[in-house]
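Subject: Sanity check before I submit

Could someone independently write out the structure tokens for this chain? I want to compare against mine line by line before I put it in a report. The sequence has 757 residues.
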Amino acid sequence: MRFDHVRDAIGHTPLVRLRMPAAPAVEVYAKLESQNLYGMKDRVARAMILEARRLGVLADGDPVVESSSGTMALGVALVGRSLGHPVHIVTDPRIDRVTLAKLRALGCEVHVVSAMTSHGWQSARIERLQELLTGLPGAFWPQQYSNPDNPGAYRWLADELFADLGPFDVLVGSVGSGGSLCGSSRALRRSLPDLRVVGVDCVGSMLFGQPDQPGRLQSGLGNSLLPKNLDRRLVDEVHWLNDHEAFAATRDLAREQQIFAGNTSGSVYRVLHDVARRTPPGGRVVGIFPDRGDRYADTVYDDDYWAATGLTALPLAAEPAVVEPDTVVTSWSRAALAPPTGRRRLLFVESNTTGTGMLALRRAADLGFDPVLLTADPTRYAGLADTAAEVAVCDTGSVPALRAFVQARCRRDEVAGVTSTSDFFVPAVAELAGWLGLPGNPVDAVLTCRDKGRLRAALDAAGVRQPRHVLVEEAPDDTLAARIAAAVDHVGMPCVVKPVDDSGSNGVRLCATTAEALAQAERVLAVRHNVRGLPTARRVLVEEYLDGPEVSVELFGTGDAQHCLGITDKQVDPPPHFVERQHMFPAGLSPTVATEVADLVRHALGVVGMRVGATHTEVRLTPAGPALIEINPRPAGGMIPELIRVATGVELLDQQLRAATGLPVTLTPTSKGYAGIRFLTVDCPGTLAGVDGVDRAGRCPGVLRVTVTARAGTPVRPPENAYDRVGHVIAVGDDAGQVIAALAEATDRLTVRVDVP
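---
Independent answer below. Compare away.
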């Protein structure tokens, strides 16, 4: 294998079948992570440092600082130094002379603390590290115990295992920071949902409820602190070995399998014997062997060290005692684990403001989660106080800031999922979900949907029917007029001019002349930040205007299929703007047309790579057939989820939240009806004085509710985008005619008062 950089050689480690007693046809394998350049943590260091550079958290030439006494230090040295960063390693006197020599040879500065503090060597090292960070401006601390890039790095290990072996039944691995076993098992369970996961810990480690004994001799596993990356929900069974048992097992591994390894691999080897004996015939078991033995020549493999430490005075069990999880143990024992109890957090990165977002927060609580709204501005959400959600104010416009907030505030096993009902923040959700190993869509798929220019290019390449179009980018010259004129010549008149990255029909305009198209393009390009304060792309699409009815297709992805929940009929205000005035669900399409429309959208979603959860796709029904206008990579806004609920019984928001948290979804309708919504708007600009007749309108037959969303005193105008609505009426009925009549009667009873200047 040939590599351009030394860090590219990380991974690709061998998978070796072991010879040991087991039931007939049981296969036991060792994944020799020790065969990385320095050890298993090479993977972690590469993932953390490259991600920090990608996100701008670590600049070229800035220092990298980490606390480690073993393979994490070597991995950081390997990757950090190969990229030109100064590397500082904080360690303790337990570091072996071989590792110390390697670190210094690689050009690291090594800081050795002299005494334990409140939580043993771990806390002493962290205190010294904090001192270094204060004195090294721009320094990056990977934080292996809390940074989800640690477990995230083991996605590649999981991929290698599955590629080399195919399905298997049990994964056995050591637990220290929580990264390797949790990260690999989380990734593997996407393909192997019944995989059994066995953790290997040491006596005197507090990871799984044992009392802490800081003087234990084993390194590479166990901990005196509870790492945030440890997700105990993933571990089905845990084993504890004392120092004598771990060291003896390591020597047995060398003698019996000719694998010269460290005590962590030795402990996994010992546990593999027990797991193999209990595995039914035909089963496959894999153990992860993290470390090689050269670091342990003066300890594990030294008889004088054994004598000096009194190692042989400790028990040496031939098989594990079966105990309850809270039993204090002194020698090899195992316990079955139950998932931790208690409610978990469902993180919302902002929300839309039409009402669906607040509904989603309330539904999250009803499903047994603690909803947490991450927001830069809580005041924008009417009704937030009624949701019982925790509100966390942070910079939601920055992925590094969101990561830092989640990493500081949340243990990994406390977070059930990440979601949003806002177009603008779906990419950030995809970033966080991927980072945390939670269910979600690929970042590239979401970004393609959010960038209408990028979407057009992807759909063009796949032959999906859509408007003719030209993407016009901002340029530091005076050629915009010529470029717009050329675009108009290509797409024809009238044409639609719109930003590539806005929402709610904002900035979308039908233009009848080239001059109008140029003026609209100039308006779009002049906008530097959207309504949420996020930077705009400053690119416009000039598109063919497709005349015909507009519908939206509500699909729901379950990973292996896209299920059609229904199609929504839409009424849009007359041009030049395209603000939706009324929705009716389901649309009155023939079965043939409905199938053609749904198939078009399924194909488009496959092209961009959307796989999980609800999507809301707008389609125009043209004489040449349905044409795709845009894909929204989230549930519909405009209260369409509520229309689906009352018409079919499918709780779309519930199912979206369940998909975001990895729970099974139910998409089968339990009722059959019709539901519609009509939005309240104003006819002239001014200040909203009030809306009269709400109670009277709410008493109309078929009306489900009347809601005023704008406060009195708010500036209002005739609608140019969805943000200009002031309220809505929702009605239900046995057919579309009943619903339309109810909406008409209710809106006739309403008076929207505007103070005109």
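---
OP: Matches mine. For the report I'm noting this point. The chain has a mean pLDDT of 94.
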